Amino acid sequence: MTRARPAGRRRPTWLATSAFPLVLVYLAGIVIVDQATPDYLRLDVYAAVAPVAAAALCTYRQTLVVSAITLTVMVITHGILPERLPAMNRVAAIFGNLLMVGAGIAVALLRRERERLLERVSATGEAAQRALIRELPLHTRQLVVDGFYISAQKDALVGGDIYEAVETPFGTRVTIGDVQGKGLGAIGTGAAVLTAFREAAYHRRSLESAVKAMEEGLYRHYAESARDGDERFVTALVFGTEAAGPSGDPDPFSLSMTLVDCGHVAPYVIGADGTVRELESGEPGLPLGLGELAAGQRRPQHVRLPAGSRVVACTDGVTEARDASGAFYPLAKRLVQWAALPTVELLRRLEADLHAYTGGRMNDDVAVLVLNARPEPYGEAGGARVG
Question: 365: domain range?
């Protein structure tokens, strides 16, 4: 579902495409009126507005075209045709327009260079953000993890929400989390947790140990940023999967899943029969960064999901989204309505409905993941890719 935005050369915008003919029509109107009125009514100064307007509204090439037409028209109408005009008036008109044409081209050139610089900065920023949050869907030999991400920050791909899915020697490990707060501090905290998760997933067999390593990574981040006083907690869900049960099992299960809840929004399970239920953890643990307040480790929950089941996990940007009246988004109700839809269509409907429900006013980052079991048994999907 998630796709990167193109970072190449920008195409002419709708404004530039629409403004170009309007500027030409304006220039033509000024020339016609100027020729139809007495000589003492000089309108050449208004014609000089055309290249300046083009510089502000049109592309660089369109500005050059408008400037060339303006200068050509002024040379003809004030330099060649009107022999009755004083020479000083003709020179002043052409010279004045020449100055305005030069100013328009200079502004358009500076604007083009600024846009190119912005494109380079945006491309670099997008690459950096994609290194933190990978595009969906993510594939392992056991799972297909699809979803979408909406950053509440304008022109940003990522914010304070995080997710990841990795294939490890111990099975698939998936996490989704929400960093307290917003801004660059939240992104840095999320990066620290994701880095720790990616490392621990490969080297820690138990999910509890991996979660502990994630929290230790967060504490190291605290220590490094202590001078800024920036200590944030992170709510998270961490999933671990095992292989499918024997094919001869009279009650086949597609996934045996372990879940560790670190104070996060509870996920939902959509059954193959269209039923939707909340997957509540027996003892939800404290968010990452607050684990020292509890006596023991966070306890994992083991669940077995029937064949065809899907797990829907999200951040509180979904459950706490509000409409104009202040009512929270009814996620469970929506999932019941769309339970029979394929995952891609369900996600498309959910994303569009969130925008419609909030009127496009997303006050918090949104991350949604749907975990689907792959149809191939573990170890027999040799062509499956990771990421």
Answer: 134-373
Between CA 147 and CA 7 the distance in angstroms is 22
The answer, as to whether pTM is greater than 0.90, is: no
Boundary residue ending a domain (127, 158, 193): 127
Among 78, 20, 91, smallest CA distance to 51 is for 20
Between CA 237 and CA 193 the distance in angstroms is 12
Residues 139 and 180 in one domain: yes
Which one has a higher pLDDT value, 8 or 57? 57
Local structure of residue 274 (DSSP, 8 states): S
Q: Do residue 160 and residue 267 come from a single domain?
A: yes
3-state secondary structure of 137: coil
Provide the angle, in degrees to the nearest 10, between the axes of the packed helices 49-57 and 60-75: 170
Band of residue 298 on the pLDDT scale cut at 50, 70, 90: confident
- Residue 307 C-beta-side C-alpha neighbours within 13 Å: 12
Would you state the structure tokens that stand for residue 3, as one six-digit string? 């796709």
Residues 174 and 98 in one domain: no
Lowest mean pLDDT segment, chosen from 62-71, 133-142, 244-253: 244-253
What is d(CA 241, CA 264) in angstroms, rounded to the nearest whole number? Answer: 19
65 band by pLDDT with thresholds 50, 70 and 90: confident
Structure tokens given for 169 = 């020697």
What CATH number should be reported for the domain holding residue 305?
3.60.40.10
What secondary structure, in 3-state letters, does 163-206 show? EEEEEECCEEEEEEEEECCCHHHHHHHHHHHHHHHHHHHHHCCC
Residues 237 and 357 both lie in one domain = yes
